[in-house]
Amino acid sequence: MVIRVYIASSSGSTAIKKKQQDVLGFLEANKIGFEEKDIAANEENRKWMRENVPENSRPATGYPLPPQIFNESQYLGDYDAFFEARENNAVYAFLGLTAPPGSKEAEAQAKQQG
């Protein structure tokens, strides 16, 4: 399973850049393997991302904006969904991964199951 984060390397939007850095920084800090897919430098990446964000997750007008997060080809969500999962200590579940032992998320899951 590969987490894929679709980003725009040459975005003029400070907000988009900040959100992208937030997601990538979290994944790196937690040693979660991922592939960075640049939609600004690669037309195939842009086309794939736009086609694979589900209809109900698209903005009312225009195209979905990066960062968009996938596990292989399964759509997981955008920055807001990621942020909410992080706030709830549920990022591994959001990513479709098993939380490592000792993590806040694993401890929370153990309490729920116990």
TrEMBL record:
<comment type="subunit">
    <text>Monomer. Interacts with PFN1/Profilin-1. Interacts with ERBB2. Interacts with ATG12. Interacts with BECN1. Interacts with translating ribosomes.</text>
</comment>
<comment type="function">
    <text>Appears to function as an adapter protein that bridges proteins together or proteins with mRNAs. May function as a ubiquitin ligase-substrate adapter. Additionally, associates with translating cytoplasmic ribosomes and may promote the expression of specific mRNAs.</text>
</comment>
<dbReference type="Pfam" id="PF04908">
    <property type="entry name" value="SH3BGR"/>
</dbReference>
<keyword id="KW-1003">Cell membrane</keyword>
<dbReference type="GO" id="GO:0005829">
    <property type="term" value="C:cytosol"/>
</dbReference>
<dbReference type="InterPro" id="IPR006993">
    <property type="entry name" value="Glut_rich_SH3-bd"/>
</dbReference>
<comment type="similarity">
    <text>Belongs to the SH3BGR family.</text>
</comment>
<protein>
    <recommendedName>
        <fullName>SH3 domain-binding glutamic acid-rich-like protein</fullName>
    </recommendedName>
</protein>
<dbReference type="InterPro" id="IPR036249">
    <property type="entry name" value="Thioredoxin-like_sf"/>
</dbReference>
<dbReference type="GO" id="GO:0005634">
    <property type="term" value="C:nucleus"/>
</dbReference>
<keyword id="KW-0963">Cytoplasm</keyword>
<dbReference type="GO" id="GO:0005886">
    <property type="term" value="C:plasma membrane"/>
</dbReference>
<keyword id="KW-0472">Membrane</keyword>
<keyword id="KW-0729">SH3-binding</keyword>
<dbReference type="InterPro" id="IPR051033">
    <property type="entry name" value="SH3BGR"/>
</dbReference>
<dbReference type="GO" id="GO:0017124">
    <property type="term" value="F:SH3 domain binding"/>
</dbReference>
